Amino acid sequence: MIENEFSLTRSFADAIVEAEKLIAGAPPAQTEQGLLEGYDYLAGSVRASLQMAWAYQRDFPYFTASTGPYTKMGLDNPDTLYFNANIRADREYLVTGVRGTTADLSFQVLNGDYSPVEVPDSLAAFDDRAIEIGPDGRFELRFGPARENPGPNYFVLGEGSSMLVVREVHSDWATERRGEIRIRCVDTAGQAPPVPDRSALAKRYGVTGKILLSRLKTFLAFPKWFYDNLPVNTMTEPRSTPGGLTTQFSSAGHYELGAEEAMIVTVPRCADAPYQGIQLGSLWYVSLDYVNHQTSLTADQARVDPDGKIRFVLAERDPGLANWLELTGHERGYVQIRWQRLARDLGPDDGPVVEVVKTDELPDRLPYHAEARVTPEQWTARIAARQDAVAARMLG
Q1: Whole-model pTM above 0.70?
Q2: What tens digit of pLDDT does each residue of 205-218 get?
Q3: DSSP run (H or E) holding 207
């Protein structure tokens, strides 16, 4: 047996012990359900941290999935596939792919990473409207140092560039097709990175532990920045999303509802936003189970009333409505609406109106209540369709 002082994994094991203490002492862990969800969140964070540390190859990068059903963080959007690759400003990178039929495809270059005290600078952010795409959907982008006459689809990497993030956003889970994306460093194409020695592996385990602790501390702090100071059971006016996503606006809030209460969130269907979606999150600042429960809806998935408005109903008890967002036992949590691929700024009239009522009062408070009803059989079919769509999206 290898002695502890020679163990390559000791630093990582110590970090997991510290991480468990962070989870157990965090405010969301003060209930049994919250504590168990915290341990589930910890498992996903361990997995994601290992992936990030082992994928850290700035000279030989590849895209990895940043989040998924089992690696959640940062109020992850159920409608988005997130990919990231590590880069450096003094290299040139070739990104090739095929544009799928998703509602949005965007690119962002970050300076640094998220931390408990700040959001990283966004050095560049754009969607696929800013690039040339062939008739067959294929595209080729280059990221690198400034140069004369760079030509189309060339993007300069500013000082400190450290990560390229790609977001592929689905509005209709059932019909939209994923695209393809890959990256390579032009300067090292055809070469190979050095085989890691004992020292390099020990460093990776140490880095993994640091990533894990930073990840947990950061996203436990995030709600304090953006949500917790807001009045409960309200949502903000649409505002440009922090972090440099120039074509995204969002409305945020946190709710607290009793077992017999419901929150009605009424928002206009925005014709100027190819993607518009709402989601719920737990106090761990991660999405609720969006595979087996309807805890999110896009404008394409939701029922739009004849007056052009979407009326979402957040409730624990099933109201028998198409736009029910299930609380799944979470009497407190976060709610967010996103609009993406916008061509104009949004104003107060584009945003949500919130009302809290008794669940039994919904027939009197919803103008199109009868038309919005669904049967238990229809609801089961809706959930089965979600399960199938996520399975296809994650494997496609």
Answers
A1: yes
A2: 999 999 999 999 99
A3: helix 198-226
